[in-house]
């Protein structure tokens, strides 16, 4: 599961953080965890952009979410992308990357790789979309208790795993196979 936080909605948006969690969709079991805060200035220096309405949106979020952008420990965008590539490097041909909207998280990451002139480390056909599962069984997502901080990339990954796995398990248990 992959989640990013950004300073814009458009392509080439500044990335604030990248979270990823290896998990088993059939059980919801989590394994390896990845999290990097990204230095915003390094994103701007690389050519990524900010969006005024997104900055305003961040200013309206809770203090815990805001701290993830402003507190220390951030690495350059190039280092974060390099680290993410290493995290997903095993099984890159078969690895499935889930995100809450494949046209946001994975597209913005791909944009950042391109701007930084780095190779995109996943196959486009291995990207999966949580929203498709939620569309099938929205009541399951509604029933899953939210943990952690909303708009914290790692906490968002863990929450998305809970409801995606629950929907997946329900479908596999209850759908008749022809």
Commentary on this structure:
- By secondary structure, the chain is α+β, with helices and mostly antiparallel strands.
- It is 45% helix and 16% strand.
- The chain contains eight helices and five strands.
- The chain has helices at 40-46, 52-59, 63-70, 77-87, 105-115, 130-136, 138-143, 153-174; strands at residues 2-6, 15-23, 30-37, 97-99, 127-129.
- The strands form two sheets. It has a three-stranded antiparallel beta sheet, with helices on both faces.
- Strand 1 (2-6) and strand 2 form a beta hairpin.
> What composes the largest sheet?
3 strands, antiparallel
Q: Approximately how much helix is present in the residues? A: 40-55%
The helix/strand order is EEEHHHHEHEHHH
Biggest sheet strand order reads 1-2-3
> How many angstroms separate the termini?
29 Å
Taken from the alpha-carbon principal axes, the silhouette is globular
The stretches of 5 or more residues where confidence is low (pLDDT under 50) are: none
Quaternary class: single chain
The number of strands is 5
Rg, please?
16 Å
Tally of helical segments = 8
Structural class: alpha+beta
Quote the average pLDDT: 93
Strand % is: 15-25%
